[in-house]
């Protein structure tokens, strides 16, 4: 991590390989590269969410999370390197508890819908789950190759993004939300029609 990129197009990946942070080269479909890519996609999705009108506290939290995800990507790019701090997981736990405490208890399943910002938060939640699966797969393939904090961070983050989607629907900053969008199951309503 001691050097910065000075050239973006190196053509060294034309053979289907890519360089890790420690200088080793692996195939672009390597599980480590998959995990790094999913974390990068998650960070990019949060960047998209940050383009939306957001409550100030949510905006500050998301920017902090982007920095932590960059730390996580750096950690994944250098096997055996620790960059994501355990305190980052604790910070997500605290944010999750604080935002969840202000919400009404869920009575039913909700759809990933409502305001544009809430919907983007739901997309980010699903990308976080995929990134978590990729990190778990990497850890299974390379036992001890991923620190527990990496898995824990992604797990907590997907939960937090679900809660933030509910917060953003209630914030209703684009005038298209106001509440959760509930799943309408015919079975749950007692209907016998298909």
Automatic annotation (TrEMBL):
EC number: 2.5.1.-
Superkingdom, natural source: Bacteria
Gene3D superfamilies hit by this protein: Cobalamin adenosyltransferase-like
Residue ranges, annotated region (Disordered): 1-23
The keyword ATP-binding belongs to this UniProt entry's keyword annotation: yes
Pfam families listed in its UniProt record: Cob_adeno_trans (PF01923)
Assigned keywords, A-Z: ATP-binding, Cobalamin biosynthesis, Nucleotide-binding, Transferase
Catalytic activity: 2 cob(II)alamin + AH2 + 2 ATP = 2 adenosylcob(III)alamin + 2 triphosphate + A + 2 H(+)
GO biological process: cobalamin biosynthetic process
An example Gene Ontology molecular-function term: corrinoid adenosyltransferase activity
Keyword set includes rRNA-binding: no
Domain Cobalamin adenosyltransferase-like, chain residue ranges per copy: 8-167
Family: Belongs to the Cob(I)alamin adenosyltransferase family.
Name of protein: Cobalamin adenosyltransferase
Lineage of source species: Bacteria, Pseudomonadati, Pseudomonadota, Betaproteobacteria, Burkholderiales
């Amino acid at each position: 991590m001691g050097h910065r990129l000075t050239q973006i197009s190196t053509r060294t990946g034309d053979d289907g390989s890519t360089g890790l942070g420690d200088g080793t080269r692996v195939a672009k479909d390597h599980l480590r590269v998959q995990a790094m890519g999913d974390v990068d996609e998650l960070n990019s999705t949060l960047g998209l969410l940050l383009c939306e009108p957001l409550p100030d506290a949510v905006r500050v939290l998301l920017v902090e999370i982007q920095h932590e995800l960059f730390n996580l990507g750096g950690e994944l790019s250098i096997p055996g390197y620790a960059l994501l701090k355990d305190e980052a997981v604790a910070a997500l736990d605290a944010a999750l508890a604080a935002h969840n405490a202000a919400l009404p208890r869920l009575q039913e399943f909700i759809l990933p819908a409502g305001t544009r910002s809430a919907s983007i938060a739901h997309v980010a939640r699903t990308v976080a789950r995929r990134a978590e699966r990729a990190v778990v797969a990497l850890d299974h393939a390379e036992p001890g190759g991923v620190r527990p904090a990496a898995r824990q961070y992604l797990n907590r983050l997907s939960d937090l993004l679900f809660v933030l989607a509910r917060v953003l629907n209630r914030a209703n900053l684009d005038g298209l939300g106001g509440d959760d969008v509930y799943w309408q199951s015919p079975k749950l309503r007692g209907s016998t029609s298909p």
